[in-house]
Structure formats: structure tokens, C-alpha cells
Amino acid sequence: MHKLKDLKLAIIGLGYVGLPLAVEFGKQRFVVGFDINQSRIDALNMGHDSTLEVSDTELKEASHLNYSSSLEELRTCNTFIVTVPTPIDKYNQPDLSPLIKASETIGNVLKPGDIVIYESTVYPGATEEICVPVLERISGLKFNIDFFAGYSPERINPGDKEHRVTTIKKVTSGSTVEVADLVDELYNQIIVAGTHKASSIKVAEAAKVIENTQRDLNIALINELALIFNRMGVDTQAVLEAAGTKWNFLPFRPGLVGGHCIGVDPYYLTHKAQSLGYHPEIILAGRRLNDSMGAYVASQLVKAMVKRRIHVDGARVLLMGLTFKENCPDLRNTKVIDIIKELAEYNIIVDVFDPWVNSSEAQYEYNITPVAKPDDGAYDGIILAVAHREFLEMGAVKIRQLGKSEHVLYDLKYLLSSDQSDIRL
Q1: How far apart are CA 9 and CA 130, in angstroms?
Q2: Choosing from 77, 131, 261, 328, which is the catalytic residue?
Q3: 66: exposed, middle or buried (Cβ count in 10 Å: 0-12, 13-18, 19+)
Q4: Active-site residue flag, 77
Q5: Is the pTM of this model over 0.90?
Q6: In sequence order, what are the beta bridge partners of 411?
Q7: pLDDT, tens digit, for every residue of 132-178?
Q8: Less Cβ around it within 10 Å: N or C end of the chain?
Q9: What is the pLDDT of residues 67-98, one digit of tens each?
Q10: Of the candidates 195, 208, 202, 215, which has an alpha carbon nearest to the alpha carbon of residue 174?
């Protein structure tokens, strides 16, 4: 087995997870950053990251990092870190095709002594049950005899400039005791927050998938409380602020639960549980509730418009924000789409305004073309759907100017005070 100093790294997948990792390793040792998207490679070679996770200055600091879409470049490496997406399909089932394709790619260049480390979120057992057999089939090598595996789940928080890849404690694991030690040693080179070496790959996989399942359930509880308090005519935010004065009250807030982790990871765990004959009750109940929030927001807006005697059929509504979270361009699994779909059922015309979004990406992913600038005085309804700092800086007066003389302002993200909006979640 290789020693730490002899490891030649390849990072497979240069998205929100892979690029920051490649850059940090690339500051210290030779790294091949591999991605099948040639335009992504071209942009990085030009010195710019379109996801905005890594600054142009940081890209320059990674002097040992080479970007490539060539299989030949991978042949020079002996340690492969896989950071491809693991989404769900339209039936909320795990879509492992990117992971399988990445494993096939590595299988074509795998050599005796090589190590393959997975960071993509999966259900417990997937690395050894799904990925390893692909590596064996393509390479003709034997697992834990000719090559080895590790798992170190990603903990990237898109748009967060405080909690970065190096400052978040990293869980590590390996397929043998020796490999586990080596994988842990490797990550400790860049992770200043330190590492936690799990006892097995399955333990590391399970730890990752429950992190976001726990958050999903906590948000589902707060969402359900918001539904109850709305029926009572009680301000949810005021209730949470009061409850938050107790030292051990958890500061969760209601809202849309999308993105590449919280709205996806629980389905990986429930898929595995169901395959074992167990039907998860609490986890799926939380998922159902969170997945219904977009439709709920749309119905609340429509009800408020009707009360104001605003004609709903053919009305114009401005959705401020499309990304799944504030201050980042990430559109993956955004639940703002659910609001748009529901409003369309009422024959409402929706304009989407989001200064963080790449227009061509929004068109490709969701067939939506965001407006460059909303029309003043044009909208019957306005929904503050994402808490971008640009919207906070606008303030209530400027936001209200976008609406007609009679309109409804729905503050989904508590950007404004309770007296500045007409509805809050």
C-alpha cells in the first residue's frame, strides 16, 4: 500500500464539493481536478469558479492543481476522491447513475495498490454494495486485495464563507484498518478542524445521511407549528423568539426545504430501510410535510389576494428569489419551483427575480427565464422567497413599490418586520 507522501490525488467532480477540496489539496500537493464538463474545465483554467464557492485568488493559490477532462490524466494518479452529485429522481428514489459512471471511469484507470475514496452522500452500504462491484468489474482487480476504498462524507455548506471545507470536522473511514489510517492522515493535511475516524465505511455513510435527516425533521416540526399558529392567528416568528429565550431551545425556522442535502438525503435512508422491510414513519412524515410547503405558500397568497378583492385569474406575482438558499447561485432542488407550479394552477403569471441566478442555467434546469429588473407598480402579489442580502438592502418601501396600489406582500423569510408585510409563514 502507498505511503502518504506517495499519494497522487485525483478529485472526480468539480462542483460545490469537489472544487473547494481540490483547491485545498492543490495548495500542498499535486492534484488532478477531473470533470466531464469541458466548459467547467475551461472556466476554471481561466481562473473563475461560477459557483462562487472559491474565489479567483484562492484558485491561483492552488499552484499544484491541474484541471482536466481527459482519462489519460487520471492514469497518473493512485488515489481517487469521488465528489459527484447523488440526487433523487421524480419518484424520490436515489439516482446513483452519476456515482456509477464515476466508478466506471475510475475502473478504467485503476491499478494495484490504488485507493478510491467516496464523498458523495449515499445510504449505508452503498460504497461496498454498489460502487466497489463496478470498480471490480471494470478493472478486473479484487477489492481489499488489489485496491482499497474509503468514505469521507462531504460537509460543504454552499454560500457559507465561515464554515469552509478546512474548518468543518471531517469524518473518515477505510476498508481496512491500514487504509482507514491513511485516509485519515490524508485529510488531516488540510482539515484544520481535525477529523473523526469512524469504525467502518458503513458507520461513516450512516453518520452523513442522518445529519441532514435530523435537520429535516426539526424543520418539519417548525413548519407544522407554523401551520397551526397561522390558523390561530398567532405570529410564528414571535412565538419562536419567545421560546428561544430558553437556553436549550433549538433555533430552527419554518420555510422551504430544498437543496442538494436536506431535501434529498432522508430519501436515501428511507430507500435502504424499505429495502430491508422496514417502513420509516417519522422520517417520511417529515418529508411529506416539508415537500408540501410550496403549495401551502401559494394557497396562502391566493387566499390573501381574494380577501383584498384582487382578481386572481391572470394576476401578476413577483417571486423574489429562485435559489434554494440565500446568497449563493445554487439552484439544485429549489422548492421555489413548487410555488411557481402551484400559482400556475390558478392561472397566475409569475415573474422570477434573482440577482444570484445564471439565467441560462435557470432556463436549462427549470425552463424559467428570470427578469433582469422587476416592473415598478406591476404586481398583484410579491413573495420574498429567498433571503438574499440584496432584498434585505432594498427594504420594505422599495419592495412595496414593485406592487400595484393594492397588492399582497408575503414575507416567507422574515426579512421584514411583522408590520411591514401582509403575510408571514
Answers
A1: 22
A2: 261
A3: middle
A4: no
A5: yes
A6: 384, 424
A7: 999 999 999 999 999 999 999 998 887 777 788 999 999 999 999 99
A8: N
A9: 999 999 999 999 999 999 999 998 999 999 99
A10: 202
